[in-house]
Amino acid sequence: MKLIGIILFLFSSWIVASDHSHDHMDHSDMMHHSHEGHAHEELVDGEKLEVNPERFDKFVATLSNAQVAVVSVKGMVCDFCARGIEKTFQKDKNVKKIDVDLSQGKVLVAFDKGFDINFEDIKKKILANGQNATGMQVVSI
Amino acid sequence: MGIYRYILFFFIIASNNIEARPISYSGGSTLMMFSDNVKDSIYYHFSPTYKYSIGIESVKDNYLNNDYSLLRATYLINRKNTQYSQRNLYINAGLSINDTSNNFYGIHGDWETRRWFVGFGFKKLNNKIIDYDQKHLQLGVAPYLGEYGDLHTWLMIKTKKNSLNDDWYTYPVLKFFKGNVLIEFGYNDETEWDAHFMYRF
């Protein structure tokens, strides 16, 4: 039963540490956010972005001279299961930033403006986590 | 023989939760710790692809005062992804490093949305003392839908039956996860508290 105590300690430590980190990130993002527009309202090829507006605006607030791939993903129903997507994209040095929008089933991936975004490569990375990418829109920031 | 049945009964009740999240992303690995009044277990697995994982489990049996290790493998035989759900079917097996007569194999599956979870499992366990099987069903609901990075909570109920006593045992399970960490607590009158911790690398 000692292990239960260790487990509780590890989890509570993790929660405290990650909340502190999250709060810190939120403050810095909010500062930038107030100076940015609402990029989620932009039309891409005549279609509106189906994203969580607040999450998307927060994501792009710190970006400049970049493009964001908004990837539609099937099977992304769980935060814990989507962690591998973030880890896989973070290994790609061309990726500036990544986020997951669970409510809309989207993955947001930021690249430098001149980078040639390859949907097949993105599909492979999503599939490496066991989900399926079904579409992509690219927004210039 | 009675005492062994008693010991095995508690072992069975305690050993189901470690089946959760049996495969990681391609190249990912997972560390799990499980603990209750019967056993302490540490299980590490690596997933070369999202289709299968291989790992090793170190078990400290608190009743028999016995330590042993299992080589384990899990294979995803079917997955269905939709916009709002995912369905999985897995097979798995394990073999003791010290004694090959101590082994298991089984099948388990789940279907989940962001709000609902349904899971089931069947496992056949063999050893020198007695062979038996176990089955379980698990239902869960998320009381709120957290966003990526939030603390997520699941309220679950689990029911189990094994071939040694032919009774169903039903008890509540609480599951929390945040970031790369997942923790699960279950409570049963017979076994009291158990806990399951998972970290995904």
Draw up the topology in text.
The complex is a heterodimer of chains A (141) and B (201).
Chain A: H1 2-33, E1 43-44, E2 47-48, H2 53-60, E3 66-74, H3 79-90, E4 95-101, E5 106-112, H4 119-127, E6 132-140
Chain B: H1 2-14, E1 28-35, E2 39-49, E3 52-61, E4 66-81, E5 86-96, E6 103-112, E7 116-126, E8 132-141, E9 152-162, E10 168-178, E11 181-188, E12 192-200
Antiparallel strand pairs in B: 1-2, 1-12, 2-3, 3-4, 4-5, 5-6, 6-7, 7-8, 8-9, 9-10, 10-11, 11-12
Taken as a percent bin, the fraction of beta residues of chain B is over 45%
Helices and strands of chain A, in N-to-C order? HEEHEHEEHE
Oligomer: heterodimer
Q: Which secondary-structure class do the elements of chain B indicate?
A: mainly beta
Number of helices of chain A: 4
Shape of chain B: globular
- By secondary-structure content and strand pairing, the structural class of chain A works out as alpha+beta
The end-to-end span of chain B amounts to: 43 Å
Look at the structure and give the mean pLDDT of chain A. 78
Largest interface: A-B, 40 and 49 residues
* Number of alpha- plus pi-helical segments of chain B: 1
> How is the main sheet of chain A built?
4 strands, antiparallel
Low-confidence stretches of chain A: 20-36
Low-confidence stretches of chain B: 5-18
**Spatial order of the strands in the main sheet of chain B?**
1-2-3-4-5-6-7-8-9-10-11-12
User: How many extended strands of chain A?
Assistant: 6
Order of helices and strands of chain B: HEEEEEEEEEEEE
